[in-house]
Input
Amino acid sequence: MVSAIDFVKDLGLGWNAGNTLDAFPCEGERDRSLAARKGWSPDDQQRLWHNEPLTLDIFRNVSKAGFATVRIPVTWRDWVDADGEVDPAFLGTVRHAVDDALEAGLNVIVNVHHDGSVGDELWIRKASKDYEGVSRRYEGLWRAIATCFKDYDERLVLEGANEVGFPDMPMDGAYEVLNRLNQLFVDTVRATGSANADRFLLIPGYDADTAKSCDPRYQLPQDSVADRLIQSIHYYSPSEFAIAEHDCSWCDNPKLTWGTDAEVAAMRADFDALQRRFVDAGVPVIIGEYAVLTGEVDHKDHASNVRWLEAVTRNACERGMCPIIWDTSSKEMCFVDRATGEFFDPVVASMFAAVRRDFCFAGQDAGQ
Output
């Protein structure tokens, strides 16, 4: 049986199907319920943030671009009731996307995405005040997802949540709530049996943040089987460079360049901390998201963008971690044309090709 460390090393480079199944209605539609959502289809959700529904051709093009793993983020909020009962049409749409990705030869990660992100309408964060209600819904949701996929082979990884934190409570309690939810995720998936009895599971760290997830208050769940948990981390640091637009409200001084000796050393220190806390203890890490701004919102130095992307990718690969680029394909973080499999930026394409060659990843000649 392959170890978790070796499994993650073999995942190669990864790509996120961003802003598709994870899209959700907002701006005046926050209180949409399963019963009130008449006429709203799964494909409507996929188109909400300017992408077309996922297809086999899209996943084949992702493979053509040189990626071996795809993360399919999914926001379930409008398709799951208070008891965790999932709309069968939506679950079927997610399953179809997974089937297409597997047919394209990709490894696949499926998660619970914006349900746990920032915003009162995104329900997992309400566990700080109503753990019983949230955990009932969360357990039912994961029971439904796990049951749907219980006979799939190990190329499918399940990820408990995305960037979950509880900023409305003291940190000691916030860590405790996340740890309890992560334990509930593992227990619920394992209880469905079949291939889920020993499936690799991806565990979200606190806010998916490096420092917060290396904090000793964050603890991996107990598991009924050894060596089957993977740590999930996202990397957008320093945020004033990677994700701060020139006119953003939360950053007074967005950075346009990156790559000083101090900045390079700070990134390496972050990855060293992840290695000490997790990899050296036998728990591999997946960098489930990383990206810089591109396209119409990119006012940054292009060479710095490429330098940062390459540094994250190589720091991860050097430590046996799987880096998965966040790609909206249509707006502010665009890397691969889903219709062709070509990179929008040939310099970024060459960078990824060089990493594939240097680390002997599958698809090393793709994207040329």
Notes: The mean pLDDT is 92. The chain has one domain: 4-358. The chain is about 35% helix and 10% strand.
